Amino acid sequence: MASLRTFLLHAFLWLGLATTAFSLSPKFYDRVCPQALPAIRRIVQAAVHREPRMGASLLRLHFHDCFVNGCDGSLLLDSTPAFETEKNARGNLNSVRGFEVVDQIKAEVDRVCGRPTVSCADILAVAARDSLGGPTWRVRLGRRDSTTASRALADSVLPSASMDLPALIDNFKKQGLNQRDLVALSGGHTLGVSRCLIFRNRIYNATNIDPAFAKERRATCPRTGGNSNLAPFDPTPAKFDTAYFKNLVKQRGLLTSDQALFNGGSTDKLVKTYSLNPDAFWNDFGKSMIKMGNIKSLTGKQGQIRVNCRKAN
């Protein structure tokens, strides 16, 4: 009996240690490479200074990576004979960008650390935070990189700009995210722009749109042609603020999926709250980013630390 108790005690201790060792932690690189996070921040801030739109692009990379089989850097992988890159998925093609900045970050971090130490998945998570110039949070670290990618999965799980509220709620629920996460993370659209191809149907056919706003957007997005013409999600596309939510309250959401958040449904109240209370939005955004960053992360001996973010070792 005593030997059984000893065995169980050892088993619980091992399990506790294993859980601790393989959990994500903000302190993961503190000892192995304390220079890593400052290096990421320097390069991200320089990239956003050169091109303000890059902040939204880096945030989007992390989001689109996490939604496809977890936050494992799979989005960064180029095609191989074994799989097609997720960059070719409907929600990513001619849309996701910032890969050169990620390459630059990886090269610099590996240089200051003396070897490949920081995963590409962790680089995306830290770069997403550092790109905002707004809310901040302690990014949990220790992710490992996948060795494969799936365009088919990306096609099936990435949320679409044409989704209504029930579809959005269901999409986020499948990732373990609730309605508060949906609204808070959608607030990332306070940064950046979208292409005419993506919002054309809304500005010509929607009924829940401010007529003056629709007319304004039509000026640069004709019924035919101009697919790549860009328009901002809100009036301050380089500033992380609450203008996105103020727009929704005025029926000035650029995408169908944006306006769906304020269209007589269950998320209206939260949109209104965020439009009036920047602190509430920033606080919830940080919490939801941490939650999203935990989706199916590879840890411990799973996956690898890539030498080149675009290909498996």
From TrEMBL:
Location of the active site: 64 (proton acceptor)
UniProt keyword annotations, A-Z: Calcium, Disulfide bond, Glycoprotein, Heme, Hydrogen peroxide, Iron, Metal-binding, Oxidoreductase, Peroxidase, Secreted, Signal
Cofactor comment: Binds 1 heme b (iron(II)-protoporphyrin IX) group per subunit. Binds 2 calcium ions per subunit.
Domain of life per record: Eukaryota
Residue positions binding Ca(2+) 1: 65, 68, 70, 72, 74, 86
Annotated Ca(2+) 2 binding sites: 190, 234, 241
Residues with site note (Transition state stabilizer): 60
Cellular localization per UniProt: Secreted
CDD domains in the cross-refs: secretory_peroxidase (cd00693)
Enzyme class, broadest EC rank: oxidoreductase
Record GO terms (molecular function): heme binding; lactoperoxidase activity; metal ion binding
Disulfide bridges in this chain: 33-113, 66-71, 120-309, 196-221
InterPro entries: Haem_peroxidase, Haem_peroxidase_sf, Peroxidase_pln, Peroxidases_AS, Peroxidases_heam-ligand_BS, Secretory_peroxidase
Record has Cytoplasm as a keyword: no
Role this protein plays: Removal of H(2)O(2), oxidation of toxic reductants, biosynthesis and degradation of lignin, suberization, auxin catabolism, response to environmental stresses such as wounding, pathogen attack and oxidative stress. These functions might be dependent on each isozyme/isoform in each plant tissue.
Descriptive protein name: Peroxidase
Organism: Hibiscus trionum (Flower of an hour)
